[in-house]
# Entry
Amino acid sequence: MLHIIQNDPEVPPGNIIECLVAPYVVHYPYRDGLLPKPKEISALIVLGGAMGANDDHRHPFLSDLKILIRSMVDAQIPYLGVCLGGQMLAAALGTKVVSNRWEELGTLDVSLTGKGKIDPIFRGIPEVFSTFQWHHDSFDIPEGGILLASSTACIHQAFRVGESAWGLQFHPEVTEEIISRWCALDNATAARREELLASFETGKESYRRTAQQFLDNFLTANDPDHATDQH
# Structure
């Protein structure tokens, strides 16, 4: 079964679960510290959060989560890390995650690398696609990892390790409600709320198609029994 880890009450799965028809379970370790057992997992998605990938002292569950992520890589169980989840993949593999580097905010373009164009996670997705960014930290690429996508401001947008573990810096899961909630968390972003929502609205249909294709690619890359709703 697909398991989803929500690290932060303000960073829900959004349109990921709206697109799913396969069974899934969402875990909330920020509330109870509980994580699924590796033997229960056929695929794992780890979402974003306001904390840093190495803030284990403030959020002790992050230590256990990194151990779980490493076990996914070792067992070649499909893993997808979104923003913090991508940074957690890098950190779990002993790679540096840097604070306040390559910051991005808003609806921005991401470009696939040569390797990205042929990677199964980006099958059917344009070489340049629009997605949503909201990050201050960024990951380095782990040893043996493959850089799959970059943007003008952030050269490390997506990578793969092994055959079935992917880390992303961008957000394929947001909705207007999520963006509005994130804007309200800070005075500076609250002032940009209408601008950020209007920009997202302009390309929303393309964003949704890309997000659904991306999720379907992840779930079918190693397990043909998983699928999303094909609208």
Q: What stands out?
A: The radius of gyration is 16 Å. The CA atoms of residues 130 and 203 lie 8 Å apart. The domain at 2-221 is CATH 3.40.50.880 (Rossmann fold).
